[in-house]
Amino acid sequence: MSQRDNDIGISQSQIDDLRARALAAATNAYAPYSQFRVGAALLLSDGSMVAGCNVENASYRLTTCAEQSAISSAVTLYGPSIHIQAVVIVNLNNAASQPCGGCRQTIHEFSSPDTEVFFPAADGTLTRSTVADLLPHAFILEESGH
Ligand code: THU
Questions:
Q1: Which of 3, 21, 32, 52 could form a disulfide with 41 if both were Cys (CB 3.0 to 4.6 A apart)?
Q2: Which domain holds residue 123?
Q3: For residue range 87-139, what is the model confidence (pLDDT) as tens digits?
């Protein structure tokens, strides 16, 4: 059975659990340049949860976003067949923040169009969206055939 077959929908207690894990991960963020501490927690389709934080670099463009850290950890822990059912993103700066374009493509790689993505709105609540809404026309590598 693939992880995809085990999807049963996400509950409020799972959202709360993911949010708590994302907040805990964000406290470990390495963000000396932006001071913007981000955490992300994934719900995989087998029920596993994996979190990550942003890891910045003096060469700014080498920074790893929280979502990407979480996905790297999930693949490391569970292998290349993971399927993401939901993602919760938070920050410790009480700011609205949306997943960046690169993270949308990275999440897309291990998701379905209906994978749910929650991110902080200005009022502190979580905005609920989907991969399909956040990244229409995602890049997909097609074989050229020649
Ligand atoms: N950041 C994330 O971790 N995820 C995003 O989706 C957007 C931005 C981080 C990168 C950098 O360390 C800080 O937020 C400011 O851009």
A1: 21
A2: 12-133
A3: 999 999 999 999 999 999 999 999 999 999 999 999 999 999 999 999 999 99
